[in-house]
Amino acid sequence: MSEPGVTETTEAVARARAGDADAWGELYRNFAPAIFRFCRRALPTREDAEDATMDIFIKLQKNLSQYDETRSFSAWLYRVAANHCWDILRRRKIRQDKETEDVEDVPLEHPDPSQLDKLIEQKTSEEVRQALHKLGARARMALVLRYYSDMSYDEIADELGVRRAFVGVVLLRARHELRQALEGKSALAAGGTS
Amino acid sequence: MSEPANPVSQDGPGGTMDHLDEMTCLLYAERQLDRARAQAVSAHTQDCAACRTLLRALDRESRLLTRAMLEEDEPLPSRLAEFQERARKSFGWIWGLVFGLAGTGVYALYTTFVEPAQVRLEAAGFGGTSLLSLLIFQGAFWKGWQSVITLLEVLAMLTVAGFGVAVFRRRLRRGSALALVLAGLCAALALPAPAAATVFHKGETYELAKDDTVKSDIFVTGARARIDGTIDGDLFFFGQSIDISGHIKGDAIIFAQSVRVNGQIEGNIRSFSNNLTITGTVGKNVLTFNELVNLDSAGKVGGSLTAFAQSVGIDGRLGRDLMVMAGETIISGTIDGEVRAKGRNLSIGSSAQVAGAIHYEGDNPASVASGAKLATPVEFTKMRHKSRYTEGHYYVWRVIWTAAFVLFGLVLFLLLPKFAAETVSAGERFGAPVGLGVLVFFGVPIAAVIACVTVVGIPLGVLTLGLWLLALFCAEIVVGTVVGNWILGKPADTWGLIGRMAAGFVIVRIVYTPLANLHVIGALVGLGIWMWGIGSIALALYNRLQPTTSQAAMPGPMPPVSLPPHTTVGGIQPA
Known about the structure:
The complex is a heterodimer of chains A (194) and B (575).
Chain A: H1 6-17, H2 21-42, H3 46-63, H4 73-91, H5 96-99, H6 113-122, H7 125-132, H8 137-147, H9 153-160, H10 167-183
Chain B: H1 22-29, H2 35-47, H3 49-70, H4 78-81, H5 83-123, H6 131-138, H7 151-168, H8 174-190, E1 196-202, E2 205-208, E3 213-214, E4 216-227, E5 230-231, E6 235-244, E7 247-248, E8 252-261, E9 264-265, E10 269-278, E11 281-282, E12 286-289, E13 292-295, E14 300-301, E15 305-314, E16 317-318, E17 322-331, E18 334-335, E19 339-348, E20 353-354, E21 358-362, E22 367-368, E23 373-374, E24 378-382, H9 392-415, H10 417-427, H11 431-453, H12 458-488, H13 494-517, H14 519-545
Parallel strand pairs in B: 1-4, 2-4, 3-5, 4-6, 5-7, 6-8, 7-9, 8-10, 9-11, 10-12, 10-13, 11-14, 12-15, 13-15, 14-16, 15-17, 16-18, 17-19, 18-20, 19-21, 19-22, 20-23, 21-24
């Protein structure tokens, strides 16, 4: 993520809050690509991501006064984006497609490390991105929050509405889904060694 | 921490070393284990190559994920790149358009409707020259034809009311707003004469004997009713036939096949029936939707008579105006006001007396008997069945209507900016709103009518129907805004949305106007717009009623059994 420096952002935010349209434009130019990418990863289609990006910035413009300047602007912006995207997915009830499944099938056994290593070795970033879109909404969202936005487990728990203790389970399960999608078979995802 | 420090079972069933489970490895790799457990995992991986490899694989997987996600694989879409710029550029001309149209709408509304309406009201004895009097008079929808308000008047009034709320709402605190609403409700409730508890009667027949008196409003449902006594309140009847020979001091609201009024009704008659015959006296006005209406020679109506019927006969005396939309209208009695008639034929008998002007639009010229005493000759307009689309003034009116709707939309968007944005967003999903629109468009009126069958359901039914009509008014505005968004892109704020609404609405009108000439296609497109718009509103409402994102609303937490037995949280700090 090529984001502007903290000082520049803080100044731009302060000016935007004071009604400076240029400052607002500056914030948009600086953060729109990253937020679009976030939405692109989190939402099913490109159109959804475009719409969501615009909506997020509209929301941001309205709620800029609520931003606590003592905290990181980009972290706050990602929270807004995450809320928005998760809200979209929740409303579409996409989460029902996989999230209602029993999670007891999350394997606790020791997967075959060499097979997993091989899989990671073989797959490219592009393939991972494509596989990402085959995941259930919550699994995808969890991975995006963790590995794109670098959110803590507490933040992810808050965002997804699960107990903090289960964030690890959600993430592990998401990885299994991803491996399934990448491999097209269930050996690694199930954690088996065969 | 009461859990064992070492999460690793050293001895398996076969006496061989067990491995770390994947969850523990992941939590360790993500630094989510507490220090003691992390140290135990670390110690285990010193001796266990498989677990070490797994940890390394998980870490590589994390890095692959991060890299895949952060990689700039596609540029920012031009739509987003131009988002800010377009919003700024579109601002100027859209505002010119909005205010231009709004100004035109206000002027057209005032000169074409409000002013003449005021003049007519004054002539009808309602007095007052302010808009307020018109608004107050609007409440007398049932009181006579003068107050049968047009759609534009509704728009004008809603617009004025909306402006008022939009201007003052920021100054009203929640408490004071609530107090205002409550005070308004109290005032509204206090306005009607206080009556005793309402009487309900349900049965095959109902008879109120000559000497009996009901000192309250009365609701009657049944096949037949006969009122020979006195009702000191309003009468509501839902049934087959009713004969009123007694005395009703309030209004009579009747849904029946046959209605006969031989006695006296001091208030108004509001009737939805097959035939209505008045041989007695009605103190105020009559509004009726019937097949046959007959004001008998002995009958007298103190106010005006408004009828939508197949055949209307006026043999008695009418204190004010007559407005009819009927196939056949025959006037043989006395009318102290004006006559406005629209229909196939109008016959004025030799015994007829009309004190006011007679405006008649029909297929055939009025037949006036030689002995008829008319204040002015009949002003006849031939009813034209040819296409109105060939006439210039049709298009002028389209512009006026467009302006009025844009103004109305502006007020709505200012009043409910968030809901407006949600509705437009819902409209952009096409399939769902159209599907829901079909359901709402046909289903809601049916449900409202069914609700009206029961006395208790009447207010609910009427309210539902009112909301449905309001949604219909707004449907084209919603569709216009969606179209505006397509063309100009997403707006940055409410004013941007309003600009897009204005531009989109005008475009929809421009496209739809020639299509409307093609009857079937025009009707289908019009229906489609209605359904799309009303469906979007319904969908936005539905979304609003969904629980918001919150922990409580989310699916329940996953069962604890899915956690590894020794997992804890807290995270070890990087060494």
